[in-house]
Amino acid sequence: AFYTNQFVPSIRYQVERYERNGDQYFPTLGEYQGIWGLLKILFHPTMVRQRVPNLMTVLPPNTNVIMYQDKLYCLNEGNLPFECRMLPNGTLEPVGFETFGERLDFPISAHPGWTLKMETCSFIRTPPKRMLLLNRAQ
Questions:
Q1: What is residue 95's predicted lDDT score, i.e. its pLDDT?
Q2: Model pTM?
């Protein structure tokens, strides 16, 4: 067993760490103040799409971690599930964002629901309410 405390190596992390030498590239909510904040809101989607074409993969998957079908998924409220592998030394290796065979085409909650026997996992997004149910056997 390993304890690890590290950043999930998502696309956003890789852009800010390796392409920008640790400088923050993606705006944060605290930057949207005053006239400059208004300008950032206007240009934010264009700026983000320059590095990350799918906006469902831009937020850091840093809210929850689940195991499903022997795969490790890192979750965020506005993203698709991000799959990682844990290497023998305890570091995370990115695999990519999961759509479960193109069935998941919307960002999900970072807190999926499970049945009592842990056989079914439900990913939910509200609003509008959409749900994807996955069985352990799928």
A1: 94
A2: 0.72
> What are the C-alpha distances in Å from 79 to residues 60, 104, 106, 119?
8, 11, 8, 23
Question: At 31, phi and psi to the nearest 5?
Answer: -85, -10
Q: Output the CA torsion sign for 9, 13, 18, 21.
A: negative
Q: Which among 97, 89, 106 is positioned nearest to 71, based on CA atoms?
A: 97
Task: State the Rg of the chain over Cα.
Answer: 17
Tokens of 55: 């906006």
Residue for token pair 């499903």: 68
Q: List pLDDT tens digits, range 34-64.
A: 888 777 778 777 777 777 777 777 778 888 8
Inter-CA distances, 101 with 22, 33, 75, 97, 105, Å: 34, 40, 18, 11, 10
Q: How far lies 51's CA from each of 16, 20, 55, 71, in Å?
A: 10, 11, 10, 27
